[in-house]
């Protein structure tokens, strides 16, 4: 289960880093919710999630590359096949000149469920951005 | 075993990040030792460990949030149910204004044993802080 | 498999951080290739790999400590016992005065095979350094 969960986050975050907003939104359930401590309203549903990812990508300065690292998983199996996952994510930013820095540090509290093919999907995510 | 060890470090470090000094100390054996390359004397026993964690927390500037990421586990099972673990830890700091940075990078060399309920506990930890 | 792969990267990168260029090169096949987005020519074979690692180590400023963190593994088993692995690596640098920073962020795309003793070895690695 650890391997499956860790692989899920790697794939999901890599889609964000590659600018695949739709592919990222597809890792949530149809009615999936993402609550960011930096936004007053949660994003609800894949269309809103994809739009949110596109807006975030558009706000990245030209030439800057972002990359997510997620880890520190605490995974708890709950009744009904639900997984409750706590994780930390660090987002790195590298400018066109190669200078790298920490962009953002956050904690994730997720409810994962199984999709129709048995695959993991995020039903509910809360992201607590440090310093916000 | 990998999953158990990785989950142990996630839980343990998260207690530090949440300011739970006693909860963190409780992840060591009663006579657990923590040797920091930045301190002349090791901390011995849970009371000293908790006091050390409280002192470290008190030294964090107001409004600054710290978060640990531990990874790069090399796990070796030794006779007597002992686990010898090498790991790296990066501590991030985020100020109240949201500016994030690397606070500290270190290597961990741990001896883990089983507690009365079969849970993992640190018997001996050596932390080598880079640049110190 | 996840545990084996994660442990392989931990051991391999730690050799680099400890300045063990030959030990690092030995985690590649005899004819192993490492392609860096920052170098026009790939390094081919263990002698060239070890020489490349020594050159990189010699370029580190005096008193600076580097440490790698690799994670975000996506592992795919392919026919013939080959593992295709995607991963992210962040390299941290800490100066003699203790000031730590992100040195480099990169993505790794690796082909791993089994050596004579069944151990994992890198047959082909591509490193995409962000901002380069």
Automatic annotation (TrEMBL), chains A, B, C:
Return the Gene3D superfamilies for the record.
3.10.450.50
* InterPro entries (UniProt xref): NTF2-like_dom_sf, SnoaL-like
Span of domain SnoaL-like: 2-118
Superkingdom of this entry's organism?
Bacteria
Cited Pfam families: SnoaL_4 (PF13577)
- Protein name, UniProt field: Nuclear transport factor 2 family protein
| Organism from which the protein derives | Streptomyces cavernicola
